[in-house]
Design the sequence.
């Protein structure tokens, strides 16, 4: 087991909190975020999509540049998802995002929270 266990809960919403994430876009984002995580040597512990926002729990190294990760996830995904064949909604994110550190002892609760977003917001649920 690595010496450092540093976890963050990240969340951000679509521009104007409009419903821009449908099933195909959610599937694209899932794959895209996981590729970026591998590229950046970050572990995605939990990932949840709703029509209007995203939740992630990630594990990083102690000196990781978190704003860079968010830029890669948000900026790159917006550009790429909007150019996917059949994407009629487009994808634009709000400028802001939220990040909260998660203690290792509370990690199971944070993961359950992220994975339970469809039940928490059934009117915004998508199937990925």
Sequence:
């Amino acid at each position: 087991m690595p010496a450092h266990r540093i976890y963050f809960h990240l969340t951000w919403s679509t521009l104007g909190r409009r419903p821009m994430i449908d099933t195909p876009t959610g599937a694209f984002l899932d794959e895209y975020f996981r590729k970026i995580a591998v590229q950046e040597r970050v572990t995605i512990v939990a990932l949840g999509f709703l029509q209007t926002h995203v939740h992630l729990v990630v594990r990083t190294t102690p000196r990781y540049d978190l704003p860079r990760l968010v830029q890669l996830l948000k900026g790159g995904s917006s550009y790429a998802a909007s150019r996917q064949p059949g994407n009629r909604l487009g994808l634009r994110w709000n400028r802001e995002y939220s990040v909260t550190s998660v203690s290792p002892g509370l990690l199971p609760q944070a993961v359950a929270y992220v994975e339970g977003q469809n039940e928490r917001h059934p009117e915004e649920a998508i199937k990925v």
Summary: The radius of gyration is 14 Å. The beta strands are 6-13, 43-49, 53-60, 98-102.
